[in-house]
Design brief:
The protein is 46% helix and 5% strand. The protein is mainly alpha-helical. The strands form two sheets. Strands 1-4 form a two-stranded antiparallel ribbon. The chain has a two-stranded antiparallel sheet with strand order 2-3. Strand 2 and strand 3 form a beta hairpin. Helix 1 packs antiparallel against helix 2 and helix 1 runs parallel beside helix 3.
């Protein structure tokens, strides 16, 4: 066993990984995508569901790096497709994070839970929405994921898509088509338009307005998107909101 570095996945409302973990040969081989070595280690008696000190199984490692051939070998030998690491993340969460669409489909075919929640309440679809991974989101929804599902204590999928500039507009449009609420209330009554204003996402704010977002919507404490933009000095979003009728 040795200590190795693992990639951090930092998100606005939670941390999904720790900096280091104790890994064995089976984890290292899975991480590196070495199919033959994984097969050999399993033949020699390695535990297909062995966990690192932070709860990762070899299948988690394969999912992080998108090694679908390794995943197939592990699954054929009884890997637990629903295993959770210490933050409640399943291999499917990691596949969604990396936009490993084919691997996500394989995991779902083998019984992965598309509704599985991490400790912060996020499902794999929330993770895909955060990063704008439309292809993986489509696979998850085809597998039964609910676009209206909220994370606790955060919010719905459009809130996640509106929160980061790494997202493209294709995914929010797809989510809206599938029933995601353009005016869905999240934490403290914030709607996706508030979240876009919070993050200074001007293009996203315009997209939401064009699809029916209310520039006058108020949070639980009475704040409109314009109040949020002005408070945080998001001048571009503030100007956009005023152009579309918002008033302080």
């Amino acid at each position: 066993m040795r200590r190795r570095f693992r990639p951090l996945m930092l998100v606005p409302f939670g941390i999904f990984a720790c900096a280091t973990a104790i890994a064995g040969p089976i984890h290292d081989a899975a991480k590196a995508g070495k199919v033959e070595q994984v097969s050999q280690l399993l033949a020699e008696g390695a535990d297909v569901n062995a966990k690192t000190d932070d709860g990762n199984t070899p299948l988690h490692d394969a999912a992080i790096w998108g090694h679908k051939d390794v995943a197939n070998v592990l699954l054929s030998k009884g890997a637990d497709v629903r295993a959770k690491e210490k933050n409640g993340m399943t291999p499917l969460h990691f596949a969604a994070n990396g936009d490993h669409t084919d691997l996500a489909g394989i995991l779902i075919e083998h019984g992965a839970d598309v509704h599985a929640r991490a400790v912060n309440g996020w499902t794999p679809l929330h993770v895909a929405a955060l990063w704008g991974h439309e292809g993986t989101a489509k696979v998850l929804i085809a597998g039964g994921a609910d676009v209206r599902e909220k994370a606790d204590p955060v919010a719905a999928l459009l809130h996640r898509s509106a929160s980061t500039g790494s997202c493209h507009k294709d995914l929010p449009g797809f989510l809206i088509e599938r029933g995601a609420g353009i005016q869905a209330n999240g934490v403290k009554g914030m709607q996706p338009i508030h979240v876009a204003a919070l993050g200074g996402q001007k293009e996203m704010a315009l997209f939401l307005i064009e699809h029916g977002a209310d520039v006058h919507a108020k949070t639980g404490n009475g704040w409109t998107p314009l109040h949020v933009a002005v408070l945080l000095d998001q001048t571009g979003v503030a100007e956009l909101l005023r152009t579309h009728g918002a008033r302080e």
